[in-house]
Amino acid sequence: APSTELSSVFVETHTVLHEARSLALADMPAGAETLLSAGPNGSWYFDWVEKEYGKVKRHIGVEAYLPEPAGLPENVEWIAADLAGPGGVAVVESGTIDLVLSGQNFEHLWPDQMLAFLIESNRVLCDGGWLIVDSPNRDLTAELQWSMPEHTVELTPDEAETVFSLAGFSVEAMKGVWLCRQAGELLPVGPPGPRDGGDSVLR
């Protein structure tokens, strides 16, 4: 008989959000050979990106606060630096990165750090490169009373578009990873209750 126990994907908010972010990784622009990740927090992170996006020739992890983990994949370079710091990552040459990925980091920066992050991201990216930022939407977190105390600035979609445009980026897409409002109605932040299926249902 089939199990009646629901997958954690459908009952645990943290798991739902992680799986939804995994789907978003898979949807990033394909073909990057050099990927720079801002703030990876362990060797698991690189395995996760490779599983969801695919293997890249060169994956640079820039991390200012955690030590380099053991057993990194052969295509990974770990740089102890702060992408949002005044010195940036000087060891990364200008115009050499196809894709910069910042997952759940941007909202932890102060405004001057956000500016430094955007300037440095713009510097290292090649022409036609991509900056992907995964960050909470204040229009929803404020209404749901679900802002994290460690977040310094959460942007609304309109604010994010303005900030990134002023920093010299062309905003090509803005996507959510979790449906929080439907037909004007605010939905509960938790998973939707009993569901049967895998990630195709989540998508």
Description:
The chain is of the alpha/beta class and 203 residues long. Helices cover 30% and strands 17% of the residues. It has a five-stranded parallel β-sheet with strand order 3-2-1-4-5. α2 links the parallel β1 and β2. α1 (13-26) crosses α2. The longest helix is centred in the first third of the chain and has 14 residues, at 13-26. The radius of gyration is 18 Å and the shape is globular. The chain starts with 12 loop residues before the first helix and ends with a helix.
Return the structural class.
alpha/beta
Number of helices: 6
- Order of SSEs, N→C? HEHEEEHEHHEEH
Query: Helix proportion of residues, in percent?
Result: 25-40%
**Beta-strand content:** 15-25%
Could you write a compact summary of the structure shown?
The protein is α/β, with parallel strands linked by helices.
